[in-house]
Amino acid sequence: MELSSITILGGDLRHCYTAEYLHEQGWQVVCFHTPQFPQSTGIQISDTLEQALEYSDLILLPTPLTKDGDNLLQTETIVPSIPLSEFLGKISPKHTIAAINLQKEFIRQLSGKNCQLLSLAQSSDFAAENALLTAEGLLSEIIRCTPFSLSETNILLLGYGNCGSAITRRFKPLCQSIYLLEQELDKQEQAKVDGICPISVDDFSQILPQCQIVINTIPAPVLEPTILLQLHSSCHIFDIASAPFGFPADITEKCLLPYYRLPGIPGRFSPASAGKMIGKTIERMTRHVL
Questions:
Q1: Is residue 138 located within the same domain as residue 220?
Q2: Across all residues in the chain, what is the average pLDDT?
Q3: pLDDT (tens digit, 9 = 90+) per residue, 48-68?
Q4: Given a cut of 90, is residue 105 above it in pLDDT?
Q5: In angstroms, what is the C-alpha Rg of the chain?
Q6: What is the pLDDT of residues 118-131, one digit of tens each?
Q7: pLDDT in tens, 208-236
Q8: Could you please report the per-residue DSSP string of 242-274?
Q9: Above pLDDT 90, what percent of the chain?
């Protein structure tokens, strides 16, 4: 079943460009608490959550879904906040929920409402394109935040999924070395083909003191604080994983290492490209999945 109307909730600038793209393709679009910027005539703005949810059976959730774990991500100027529990209480089995990435508990709650879920991250095309945008934005952020040249830098990369491999392609020509910590053997082999060196826990004492940058792509703790103490004192940690992230927020206080938590990079650095990509993925999935 191909749909032609959509409700877009909250989010960052990506959702504004998603709204623009889908409207240009002939979709009927309503936005609720998205960031405000000049939008095409014909894109409706809803004043209430109830009105927004009634408009369309297809709902695009914010990315990220929440910043505080309790409320939908809305523009900072919007008050009051909308609790996730309130949203869940207002949806029904008629709704199809589209999202890039959701935590397992929220997916379980949606299943309890008998809603169909479209996970954009399960699209291989979307995952690959989103990873490239993430790598580009991360490069910009690392150059901005670090006091040293990448040409002098050894990087420890945690995880070799789509983002890990995209980061390798962007960073390998610029830095001295990339060391990889990855459990899956097939991904280790692919990393070797791509010209980076997989390491094990046994290599930590030799490798970690040489690393000026750690990049984490895994949404789970990988390195214990005691292990981080082996890193060089000037090492910077960049965590691009989704919640629950790879490190606790107080890692700088505990280990005296600069820590940058950077979810949703495409929404900050390339919202127009990312928003169009979301729109195209929704078009493909509603044609072939529903």
A1: yes
A2: 91
A3: 999 999 999 999 998 878 877
A4: no
A5: 20
A6: 999 999 999 999 99
A7: 999 999 999 999 999 988 899 899 889 99
A8: PTT-SS-TTHHHHH---EEE---HHHHH-HHHH
A9: 71
* Structural domain span for residue 91: 5-122
Q: Is residue 145 located within the same domain as residue 253?
A: yes
Q: What is the CATH number of the domain that holds 168?
A: 3.40.50.720
For residue 1, what pLDDT is reported? 42
Q: Distances from the Cα of 77 to the Cαs of 35, 61, 62, 74, 258, in angstroms?
A: 9, 19, 16, 8, 30
Measured from the Cβ of residue 148, the count of other Cβ atoms closer than 10 Å reads 11
Q: What total of structural domains would you count in the chain? A: 2
Whole-prediction pTM: 0.88
Rounded CA-CA distance 177/254 in Å is: 27
Instruction: Please tell me whether residues 80 and 173 are part of one structural domain.
Output: no
3-state helix, strand, coil in the chain (%, to 5): 45, 15, 40
Is 64 part of any domain? yes
Tokens of 196: 């980076």
Distance from C-alpha of 25 to C-alpha of 283, rounded to nearest angstrom: 9
CA 114 – CA 209 distance, rounded (Å): 51
Q: CA-CA distances (angstroms) from residue 16 to 62, 93, 243, 279? A: 11, 26, 23, 10
Give the per-residue pLDDT at 70: 86
User: What strands, in cross-sheet order, belong to the sheet with 58-60?
Assistant: 44-45, 28-32, 5-9, 58-60, 96-99, 116-119
What is the secondary structure of 82-137 as a DSSP string? -BHHHHHHH--TT-EEEES---HHHHHHHHHTT-EEEEGGG-HHHHHHHHHHHHHH
Q: pLDDT band at residue 38, thresholds of 50, 70 and 90?
A: low
- SS3 call for 174: coil
Final residue in a domain of this structure, among 78, 101, 122: 122
